[in-house]
Amino acid sequence: MTILDVESVQAFVAIADFQSFTRAAEALGTTQGAISVKLKRLEDRIGQRLIERTPRSVRLSAQGALFLDGARDFLAAHERAVAGLTDCRRRFTLGIAAHVAGPEVPTLLARLNVHDPGLTIEVRLDNSRTLLDAFDRGELDAAIIRREDDRRDGEILGPEHFAWFATPHFEHRQGEPVRLAALAPSCGVRDIATRALDARSIPWTEVFLGGSSSMVTAAVSAGLAIGAFSCRLAPPGTVEVGQRFGLPELPSSEIVLHSTLTDAKSRGALRTLAAAFREHRVTAG
């Protein structure tokens, strides 16, 4: 019978998540050499090469890809067993920007729960600036937001591209103000859109100002206005209309993860969160 040790499997999953021995070592609070030793121990024990490493890339082998889900289940079972020894539940407060939260959110929360069944997850949705201020005040353990212009810190989770969307039969006459639906004036995506219009001297008017992203989505889907959305979060049934109406191209941004947590348990949760977000984007793409 092949007996697996937890640390070796943790090392393998971290390498798979980050596609980097260095970043995996940082996440697990150890050295690159130690990570390599643990991976070799695991590969020797199961008699399969799990990771293919070249000077330019680190990726799963065919056997590693087959083993990954089982490895995650193995670690989850270990976490549940350890969590069962204590009634102490920890709280994790996560902020997610309204213009970032999408279909991957259930995946993120499910992965966090599997990683740490003793974790109470509290999610707060708001605009990026409000969440960043809350994070700086220590009210959030972590925040996934659109990068703000004045901040260069945070772990990049992926690019974010924006465009103009409306229903296929929406009409806009040249020379008339662009009819916009947007979130409150503090919304960063609204700022991106209105600055782009102002830079081209294109008149605009807000015909719908929503209190939530779902309300703005509903207004655009109903054909009331044009909206600026992340390309991955465009309302169902809408189409990109920037070129059709001569609207300016919207600049791209980045989605970043902010956190100052340093203990091993929390770092593991953050690594799980980041990996789940990236994996969902790759699958969706």
From TrEMBL:
<dbReference type="GO" id="GO:0003677">
    <property type="term" value="F:DNA binding"/>
</dbReference>
<dbReference type="InterPro" id="IPR000847">
    <property type="entry name" value="LysR_HTH_N"/>
</dbReference>
<dbReference type="Pfam" id="PF00126">
    <property type="entry name" value="HTH_1"/>
</dbReference>
<keyword id="KW-0804">Transcription</keyword>
<dbReference type="InterPro" id="IPR050176">
    <property type="entry name" value="LTTR"/>
</dbReference>
<dbReference type="InterPro" id="IPR036388">
    <property type="entry name" value="WH-like_DNA-bd_sf"/>
</dbReference>
<dbReference type="InterPro" id="IPR036390">
    <property type="entry name" value="WH_DNA-bd_sf"/>
</dbReference>
<protein>
    <submittedName>
        <fullName>LysR family transcriptional regulator</fullName>
    </submittedName>
</protein>
<keyword id="KW-0805">Transcription regulation</keyword>
<keyword id="KW-0238">DNA-binding</keyword>
<feature type="domain" description="HTH lysR-type">
    <location>
        <begin position="4"/>
        <end position="61"/>
    </location>
</feature>
<dbReference type="InterPro" id="IPR005119">
    <property type="entry name" value="LysR_subst-bd"/>
</dbReference>
<dbReference type="Pfam" id="PF03466">
    <property type="entry name" value="LysR_substrate"/>
</dbReference>
<comment type="similarity">
    <text>Belongs to the LysR transcriptional regulatory family.</text>
</comment>
<dbReference type="GO" id="GO:0003700">
    <property type="term" value="F:DNA-binding transcription factor activity"/>
</dbReference>
